[in-house]
Amino acid sequence: MARAKVEQQPATGTALIVMVGLGMAFLLFMAFLNVVKSGNILSEANLLFAALVFYAGAGALYLGFGVTGTDSYLKYASLMTWAGLLANSGAVAHRWYEAGHPPFASIYEMLLSFVWTLAALTLIAEKRYGVKVIGTVTMPVAIVGVILMQLLPSEVRPLVPALQSTWLHVHVTLAMLAYAACALSFALAMMFLIQDKVKTEMFLAATSIFTVGIYGAVLTRFEKWGGLNVVAWDAQNKTEVFVSRGVRLFVTIPDLGWLMLLVFAAVLAPLVLYILSRVRKNESLLAMADRAVFISILLQMLALAFFLVRVRGGQYPSLDADGLYATSLAASPFILSALVGGIFANLLYLLLLWRRGDLERLLPDADTLDRITYKTICIAFPLLTLMIAAGAYWANRAWGSYWNWDPKETWAAITWLVYAGYLHMRITRGWRGRRAAYFAILGFAVVMFTFFGVTYLLPGLHAYA
Amino acid sequence: MRAPENAREGCFNPLITHEFEENRNVGAERALPHVRKRTDMALSLHSAPRKIWQTLSSIKTGVVLIILVVIFSAAGTVILQRPMTDADDMERAYSPTMLRFLDATGLTDVFHTRWFVALLILVSISIIAASVQRFPNAWRYFARPYKSPDESFRRALPTQAVIAVVNNPIVNNPIYNNPGFNNDEEQGLSAAERAFKHLGLKTERIVRPDSFSLFSERNRISEMAVYIVHASLLLIFTGFIVDSLYGWRGFLMLSPGTASNQIEMKNGSMRTIPFSIRCDGTGEETYADGSPKKYWSKLSVVDGGRETSRKEIVVNDPLVYQGLRFYQASYGRTGKIDQLILDATPANSTTGTAQEITLAMNQTVALDPDTSVQLVDFIPDFVMQDGRIYARSKDIVNPAVHMVVTSKKAHGSVNVWLPPMPGIDENASSPYTFDPKDLKTGTYTGLQVSHEPGQWAVWAGVVLMAIGLTFVFYVVHMRFWVVPVRDAQGGTALWVGGTANRNRDAFELKFKTVVEQIRKELQPEPAATAPADATTVSGTSVSRTVSRTTIAGR
């Protein structure tokens, strides 16, 4: 695939703005008609829908900006992000008021707060640090977040006794902030690597390893005869089905396992081709690897589509109990976000592959990025520390001990140690540039594992999120 | 503390030479005493302990130890752990040989094995060694700040500027007329003093036999911050170790009205505590949808025969007494009957009215002057098989009650079962029919009891760490030096230098404003042509400030 050359587009580019504006006006008008019919204007769902429309508009413009570098897109994109953030804040406030506690108690509420934080951080990064292109990355994530929210059960659930604590809110707020800062440091470290002239094929390898990891994790649920195990969902009570206390009932969706295996092979192909090209020093294999990425994206989308269709419709048998059980996307939030995340990462790689010249022009210089990465971690680390401390204090009140070596706790401590290692290396050993960037990326990988991996793979007390 | 490390590491990235140079040069001011110290130690210590000490205190050892901790704790989350898993589950998950291996190596209980504890202790020792190794220099640096920069230091400092002092003939004060006094230098330094004062920085005049300069700094404590963090970590570890040595956890199950001082430990043994806990009531509240909302227990402490404390505990709010904490951990039904409420109706008369009676276990209640009923048995979960009744479990799933109705008239007693048991009950011949209204079964509260004498060290450590981290990341130690020098033309100039221990890009901006401000102050008294610039200087006339600070300084 030919590397795209820098294309200088005319700087006006009003066509896209007009199109996005018209599209949004249409969507909002349709929504307004609906609302007038139902007579309830300021409900949470409506606010969220407005946020979605604004974020989508902002995302389109940010993408337009990312691809063409037209500055006027950026102005309107920020404006829409502001509008989306406003609507999102309304939704958060509404939720908070309705539930009587800050929105952190379920995955839906966490996502609501996460998207809000992400939009706020985007604006801060853009205005304060001049990282203009960041919206190209964060807005699609926000859009996916809001869409995921539509699929998750959203009614206000009362808090079980263990969660009725102020310390929960302190702990979760700190966790969200810390993780958001870690995510930001990761994105900045990636940008640093782009500006530091790391070869594009290195990103290919990284993306492939990430995607292979995702499908490897999904395939841990592979069942004999090609099925895929997912958690059963009780649609009436809107809860997962439990066999006994803490043990979820899994149902097997037939043949989905084979599809996942196929996609696993497809995402493995670019990695294999990359390794071959390194071993044989053959550049043409790299071009093939890029093509394989393209194919794997299509297959991943297919897998996602099939996953959505099969999970939403139909009842499936289980190995642990007789009868057929339904399942729901709400029961498999991690698989869903993993599939979406994989596609997103690969699309980002394509963006880099085709538009590297533009990206390099738009991003701040490597030195600045390196420094901002460090500063972000300087913010993340104290937050992580306080998050763990608040969690320990809460555990001490709820479970009778401040440290139980629960998997979540242990992995939080591991995350803390990794970032402590980063800081020591940077401060006492003077690690800068690439080594520090790789370390920051490792740190975020551990954060992701602590957040998703532990909940998905390892059992423990910390079953809420 | 930083300098020797960096010098050894070398510059592998051109981006950072700048900062390294600065580190090395800032280090120069400390390098000499450091070297002396090293040789002292080499003489006084034997080589083996010295080597061990050096190994322990090196960053590399610390990192290796931390990596080991990370690997083993990660293993502890992946491998099933004994304390949290049933023995049966363990056997199901691993093959016997595998299980034997895991047990032998302690991998089934990583966090409590001796070698993991040893590893944590090694980490602590490494932190102590690294801190002790680096502390004297840092302390010297902190206690005796480098105030009067020599020439080599001045040459090498990366953030510096030279400002020419324009000769200003306004000062005509007698004290300046003594020989050897340089009017320009004095003017320059006092201008710098005013500039720092304007920017809110305190200054100090440093007068040495061979030099005459100005020093200004802020937040020197920031240099010690990293030791605060390390100390806090050690405090947390201490608390942790104290708890693992002297702390214990147990369980106490109480029904309302009962008291106990026997705590059941994890291994099944009992522990006697010096006071008793009495449960005065327990219960649960549920939301409208049936999910639990609140579990509560009313507890009283009976110490030395009298009640000394009383509290209603809920999840997240324990009772604390004499260092022991009692947590609401579980709540449930005992499977014993507390109260049975029934409607009793005379069987043979159509006019008889129902009367509500309440029965407790083995209690007899008179239904009329001749007839009485007694509750004799309660089965929480019955099954009927081959004409006999069995109890399947202690959970209240399928309850049955057995009552005996005694009638003086009939001179006999009748066995009544609810629900009716065909072939066993004699309900048909009972003078009364019974209609169950409510069944109140006994409840119990499960209390988690824990004794963690070290937790105060942990919380103190956490607070200290928060303070330390704030200083480490957000409080910058910045220093400025102003030295009068001769410029290339032979005129007087001010050499201004500065460093900060972190956040150097922000510091460079600050340095620029300082230099700008000094320039502004150095400008001759404002003429009528530049009124805008004059505002900052007006109010304090140059000569007055000079004389005051000079007198104070000498």
Strand content of chain B: 25-35%
* Mean of all residue-level pLDDT scores of chain B: 77
| Helix-and-strand structural type of chain B | alpha+beta
- Judged by helices, strands and strand pairing, the structural class of chain A is mainly alpha
Work out the helix count of chain B. 14
Number-wise, the strands of chain A total 9
For the record, give the distance between the C-alpha atoms at the N and C termini of chain B, rounded to a whole number. Answer: 35 Å
Radius of gyration of chain B: 42 Å
Helix percent of chain B reads 25-40%
The CATH architecture designation of the largest domain in chain B is 2-Layer Sandwich
Query: Overall 3D geometry of chain B?
Result: elongated
The low-pLDDT segments of chain B are: 1-43, 169-180, 527-554
Show the largest interface: A-B, 54 and 58 residues
Please tell me the total number of domains of chain B: 4
Tell me how many strands of chain B there are: 20
Q: What does the radius of gyration of chain A come to?
A: 23 Å
**Which quaternary structure do these chains form?**
heterodimer
**Secondary-structure element series of chain A:** HHHHHHHEEEEEEEHHEEHHHH
Features:
heterodimer; A: three-stranded antiparallel β-sheet; two-stranded antiparallel sheet; B: 554 residues; alpha+beta; TATA-Binding Protein; 4 domains; nine-stranded antiparallel β-sheet; five-stranded antiparallel β-sheet; 14 helices; 20 strands
